[in-house]
Amino acid sequence: MKQKIEKTLNNLSKRGFQCYFFSTSSEAKSHLLNQIKKEEIIGIGGSMTVKNLEIYESLVEQGNEVYWHWMAEPKDRPKIFPKAQYSDIYLTSTNALTEEGELINIDGNGNRVSSMFFGPKKVIFLCGVNKIVKDENEGFKRIKEIACPLNAKRLDLKTPCGVTGECNDCTHPDRMCNITVTLTGRPKLIEQEIYLIDEELGY
User: What is the rounded distance in angstroms from the CA atom of residue 45 to the CA atom of residue 136?
Assistant: First the structure.
């Protein structure tokens, strides 16, 4: 695993991403909170990693203005999406992280993936080492076999993956696999930082 982590971080750096490695999630969270200024506006994309680290609560406690649709009523979420996208710092994770330094993501609405490459001044990805895969093919396999079924179950969706735990490339109205984005390098208009954490985090 150590060799895999080093290879991934090295290739991410070559592609223009600023990388940090942390032994624990608490170290990553502490570093994150220390670099965020109280006056900065924070947006958050759907992420179990961010939720489990209780970052939202800590940011609110330290006085930041934070926009996260998970903390809003469904009817208010369309108003939250653009405010999060055009924040000073956008926090999210990634569905898969290849050893070659690519970030692979699949989304249902597109608010999360679009905010990864346009809108915020800075994007910070918080990723457990469980997100590392060999290549793009393994990345899509991970998403279809792990991330999507678990998210569908969490959201009580009636998609095949939500019911059976297996993807069959459905056309169900609740389908989450509508938009696919692969970051093969840092977008020119946005700072991007990747926090790789030596724990299994999120889906």
Answer: 22
Tell whether domain 2-140+178-197 is in CATH 1.20.1440.20. no
Residues 6+ apart with CB under 8 A from 126: 28, 32, 47, 49, 50, 53, 55, 91, 92, 93, 195, 197, 201
> What is the spatial distance between Cα 89 and Cα 10, in angstroms, rounded to a whole number?
24
Give CA angle at 130 (127, 134), nearest 5°. 105
CA distance 58 to 133: 31
Task: Identify which of 91, 82, 109 has the alpha carbon closest to the alpha carbon of residue 48.
Answer: 91
| Rounded CA separation 50/125 (Å) | 9
- HSE (side-chain half, CA atoms, 13 Å) at 52: 15
Distance between CA atoms of 115 and 67, rounded to whole angstroms?
13
- Asked if 175 and 108 count as a contact pair (C-beta separation under 8 A), the reply is yes
- Residue 42: CB atoms within 10 Å: 22
- What is the pLDDT tens value at each position of the chain, 203 positions in all? 889 999 999 999 999 999 999 999 999 999 999 999 999 999 999 999 999 999 999 999 999 999 999 999 999 999 999 999 999 999 999 999 999 999 999 999 999 999 999 999 999 999 999 999 999 999 999 999 999 889 888 988 889 888 888 888 888 888 889 999 999 999 999 999 999 999 999 98
The domain locations on the chain are 2-140+178-197
